[in-house]
Amino acid sequence: MKTILCKALRPLMLGALLASSVVHAEVVPLDRVVAIVDNDVVMQSQLDQRLREVRATIQKRGAPLPPEHVLTQQVLERLIIENIQLQIGDRSGVRITDEELNQAMGTIAQRNNMSLDQFRAALSHDGLSYDEAREQVRREMIISRVRQRRVAERIQVSEQEVQNFLASDLGKIQLSEEYRLANILIPVPDSASPETVQAAARQAQEMYQQLKQGADFGQLAVSRSAGDNALEGGEIGWRKAAQLPSPFDSMVGSLAVGDVTEPVRTPGGFIIIKLEEKRGGSKMLRDEVHVRHILLKPSEIRSEEETQRLAEKLYERIQAGESFSELAKKFSEDPGSKLNGGDLNWVDPESLVPEFREVMNNAPQGQVTKPFRSPFGWHVLEVLGRRATDSSDKFREQQAAQTLRARKYDEELQAWLRQIRDEAYVEIKQ
Q1: Residue 137: helix, strand or coil by DSSP?
Q2: Bridge partners of 373?
Q3: Long-range contacts: 23-30, Cβ < 8 Å, 24+?
């Protein structure tokens, strides 16, 4: 729920009334604004709640907590960045329906091998209410969709880039090993002076020496990294070498599990990478699905609800016998498949977003699905065929394109987050 600025005045009004009527009453701390972010605010209660969640997560990993002022600063900055993205989503008409949110909560419970009741109990044991967790998931879903619209959709990979990648040494081994990585970012502003750059370099080198002497990487990331993943101990998940920006793509293969790289200067600052785990290297048959779809995107001129109703109407028209292909050509907003009647041809399910992949995998062949939501919008799809395939040239090209998009996405996301943070009006209340 969006907090409006006038709510910030309410504690002051209540405080004045209490002071005038009950002079000797016990002073009760009231909620207050800790940051003004464009047209919204971050409240002390939000900060306190997120601090509790972060402390619980860090303690569950067995890591020591950083100093309280450091943790508070990190968490507040994370809330500010989230708030900016949520406001962008609100202005863009991004909405999460109760049905979508219920499905997401059910999926999270299933992934943890729990029923919803067990999931509620587990959250309560960790000091979180189900409603609080549900609201956080809603926020994360909105942020994910905002990033898809503002970052992922503007990333283009050309055929020449794919061919150049496949011809490179990294391209030839891109189906080999994968690496689970963590990072620490010491930021350097775009217009930094030489003195600022040198100070950041000294700080990064100091942290590198601490890590070589046995300091906990996750603890340092939580307390000192400026990366978007700092509060997760710097975890960035599984990556192939080819998905990493230079020079990390060539450095990671020589690391042993547990090793860290020396600080590397990048456009955003100095980065230290740690190799947490390795896996993969063996080729295997993979499933491919021949699928077509119609995509409808909510926008400033068509709301989420209107888009859903249009998708439902198209589904009914297909069920009544109208041509899927002709309706896709007329209505679909996926430029890559629209002219082909919505045909995506043969695709690797792993190259698709989870929401689309899950519906596609469960859809009977030849049967049109009911409308469903993904980060890109509302879809109606039909599975035309399924097959198992090896690492053919076509499959390798798909994997190369996916790898290049992932690499560009990571770089573009960090640049975009810095941009929206710099452009936002932010006032920290002491």
Answers
A1: helix
A2: 378
A3: none
- The length of the chain is 430
Q: Say what the alpha-carbon torsion angle 108, 376, 234, 121 is, to the nearest 10 degrees.
A: -20
Rounded Cα–Cα distance for residues 222 and 226 (Å): 9
Q: Which of the four pLDDT bands, split at 50, 70 and 90, describes residue 12?
A: very low
Of 74, 21, 149, 184, whose CA–CA distance to 141 is shortest?
149
Tokens for 384, please give them: 């035309």
Task: Tell me phi and psi for residue 189, to 5 degrees.
Answer: -60, 155
Q: How many CB atoms lie within 10 A of CB 159?
A: 9
Contact 183, 229 (CB under 8 A): yes
Q: Where are the alpha helices (DSSP H) in 41-115?
A: 44-60, 68-91, 98-111
Q: Check pLDDT > 60 for residue 17.
A: no
Q: Which of 283, 251, 63, 270 minimizes the C-alpha distance to 175?
A: 283
Q: How far is CA 259 from CA 138, 207, 211, in A?
A: 36, 14, 9
pTM: 0.53
Cis peptide before 247 (omega within 30 of 0): yes
> Which helix (DSSP H) or strand (DSSP E) does residue 36 occupy?
strand 33-37
249-258, long-range: CB < 8 A, 24+ apart = 249/170, 250/170, 252/179, 252/181, 253/177, 255/179
> Any bridge partners for residue 361, and if so which?
none
Residue 8: how many CB atoms within 10 A of its CB?
A: 16
